[in-house]
Amino acid sequence: MSDALRAEWTKLRALRSTPWSLFALLISTVVLSWLIAASTHTNRCPISEGCHDDLVAIALGGAYLGQMAAVSLGVLALGSEFSSGMIRTTFAATPRRDHVLLAKAVVVGGLVFVAGLLASVLAYLIGSTVLAGNGYTAGNGYHVAGFGVELRAVVGTAVYLATVALFSLGVTALLRHTAAAISTVFAVLWVPLIVISMLPMDVGLKLGRFCPMLAGLAIQRSTAADDAIPIAPGVGLLVACAYAAAALAAGIWLVARRDA
User: Fold this and answer.
1) Which domain holds residue 16?
2) Residue 167 within a domain
3) Which pLDDT belongs to residue 139?
4) Residue 138 lies in a domain
5) How many CB atoms lie within 10 A of CB 115?
6) In 10 A of CB 143, how many CB atoms?
7) Which regions form coiled coils (predicted)?
8) Which of 30, 60, 89, 185 has its CA at a distance of 20 to 30 angstroms from the CA of residue 118?
9) 83-87, 220-224, 231-235: which has the highest mean pLDDT?
10) 163, pLDDT greater than 70
11) Which pLDDT tens digit goes with each residue over 165-178?
């Protein structure tokens, strides 16, 4: 397994798409968080009418875009080998195919987690600073989360991004085609959001608890907003992790039982 880990780390570093995907994850998360925070001002939410803005979730809102780069990295980490035929060499060098996929999962998940944590920290620091400048301070009567909630949201966002990358890796192992895997993952993440918007609100919120993106990003929530997906932050992240675990388990099982 240690040899498989070293080999997968070497291959992932050699892919030209890897640094670009990590750079895109960092920049898109931070920039979108800054734009969302800059467009959110207390003038649109007077205290007299009650303000339910979740400042932590707003400051980390860039993760909705950053996850696209995590999907790209997770898919290309395996899809590039299937498309080039290099996967045959990989399986010849490491006959235990489950070791190959597990090693890829460790390397991809760890790398995306580190990049996601850096992106989350920067996004939160920049976003919260911009929000404070726009009038969202405790002195003005707005809810300001404690350190424990902020830490949970920031670290949880990094875990979610790593989970998305692992889910993408598992789907790629199932489909063995880069374009098909990216399309499938995007559909699983974003199509439920479109469907829910067409349903009655109470039905849509209940269904949202079972959607990987909506449930997983509940980890960012710091207030009990009326329009939030009705699921606890930790439970929501577990739902997203369950999708990734199921995809990886199915991918490992199928890869071990068919030709490369």
Assistant:
1) 2-255
2) yes
3) 60
4) yes
5) 25
6) 15
7) none
8) 185
9) 231-235
10) yes
11) 999 999 999 998 89
Q: Tally the domains of the chain.
A: 1
Residue 260 in domain:
no
Q: Annotate the chain with DSSP letters as a single string.
A: -HHHHHHHHHHHHH-THHHHHHHHHHHHHHHHHHHHHHT--GGGS-GGG-----HHHHHTTTHHHHHHHHHHHHHHHHHHHHHHTHHHHHHHH---HHHHHHHHHHHHHHHHHHHHHHHHHHHHHHHHHHHHHTT--GGGT-----HHHHHHHHHHHHHHHHHHHHHHHHHHHHH--HHHHHHHHHHHHHHHHHHHHTS-HHHHHHHHTTSHHHHHGGGG--S--TTS-SS-HHHHHHHHHHHHHHHHHHHHHHHTTS--
Is the overall model pTM greater than 0.85, yes or no?
yes
Q: Contact at 8 Å (CB) between 209 and 239?
A: yes
pLDDT of residue 45: 62
pLDDT value of residue 260: 55
Helical packing angle, 97-133 and 17-38, nearest 10°: 30
Residue 30 and residue 161 in contact, taking contact as beta carbons nearer than 8 Å:
no
For residues 141 and 244, what is the distance between their CA atoms, to the nearest angstrom?
40
Is 121 contained in some domain? Answer: yes
Tokens of 70: 């995590």
- Determine the Cα–Cα distance for residues 137 and 134; give it in Å rounded to an integer: 9
Residue with tokens 């999962």: 105
